[in-house]
UniProtKB/TrEMBL annotation:
Name the UniProt record assigns to this protein: Peptidase metallopeptidase domain-containing protein
Any one GO molecular function term: metalloendopeptidase activity
Gene Ontology, cellular component aspect: extracellular matrix
Alphabetical UniProt keywords: Hydrolase, Membrane, Metal-binding, Protease, Transmembrane, Transmembrane helix, Zinc
UniProt-listed Pfam families: Peptidase_M10
One Gene Ontology term from the biological process aspect of the record: proteolysis
Domain (Peptidase metallopeptidase): residue spans on this chain: 32-193
Provenance organism: Methanosarcina barkeri (strain Fusaro / DSM 804)
InterPro entries the record matches: MetalloPept_cat_dom_sf, Pept_M10_metallopeptidase, Peptidase_Metallo
Keyword set includes Cell membrane: no
TM helices/strands, residue ranges: 194-214
């Protein structure tokens, strides 16, 4: 049988917007009901060729996104996916990060990630997912925290499982979402030990002050009992 292979990108991307507005009740689009002809679906995470502002904590967000869909996701899949992490670029789903999609991949402004499936005989044979680690807000560039990265990863995995976009703003497959105001993971990893030491030092000071106050109160009580009774 003559097999035609081609690549396409059906707007399989998620946009970053500052706000989220009202809910629209509409069923999500579907690219394919059963996009994969086998299980488990193998996943390769490229955490070696990474951009400057990549955070090692992003790897865990990919694992959480996989668990999200294995546990049912948004409830719109016709099947229960099973994923398997592999150390091979021949995996079914390949994931990589870039500094900024607009600058590196030429994506439209505000796009935070995209999934590009390759299809043969009506089934996916490979999906490449590309995620950026930050975006521009005006002239300033902002690093994505773990919560934002998790949302982007969930969305793109949804595309890799055959789901299109949803017009329900509460659905993970809605193409726009509010950027999470979470902590920059690189700053956390860099200054985390210092912050922990500072917190410990503050706790020691507070405990010392508390002990001193109790001793002073006890001493004053003793003097009052001695001279004012």
């Amino acid at each position: 049988m003559y097999r035609v292979r081609f690549s396409f990108m059906l707007l399989l991307m998620v946009l970053i917007l500052p706000t989220v507005s009202a809910v629209s009740e509409a069923n999500p689009e579907k690219i394919l009901d059963y996009p994969w002809d086998h299980s488990p679906i193998t996943v390769y995470i490229d955490d070696s060729n990474v951009p400057e502002h990549y955070s090692p904590s992003y790897y865990a967000q990919i694992e959480k996104a996989m668990e999200y869909w294995e546990e049912g996701g948004n409830g719109n899949l016709e099947f229960t996916p099973v994923f398997k992490l592999v150390d091979s670029k021949e995996a079914d789903i390949r994931i990589k990060w870039v500094e900024n999609l607009e600058n590196v991949e030429g994506a439209p402004q505000g796009v935070a990630g995209y999934a590009s499936p390759r299809v043969s005989d009506g089934r996916f044979v490979r999906v490449d997912i590309v995620l950026e680690v930050g975006n521009y807000q005006g002239r300033a560039w902002y690093q994505y925290g773990d919560a934002t990265m998790l949302s982007i990863a969930k969305h793109e995995f949804g595309h890799a499982l055959g789901l299109g976009h949803s017009s329900n703003r509460k659905d993970i497959m809605y193409p726009e979402y509010e950027q999470r105001e979470d902590i920059n993971p690189l700053l956390l990893s860099k200054y985390g030990p210092i912050l922990q030491m500072a917190a410990l030092a503050a706790l020691v000071v507070l405990l010392s002050l508390g002990v001193s106050w109790l001793r002073s109160r006890k001493k004053r009580k003793k003097l009052e009992n001695k001279y004012f009774k």
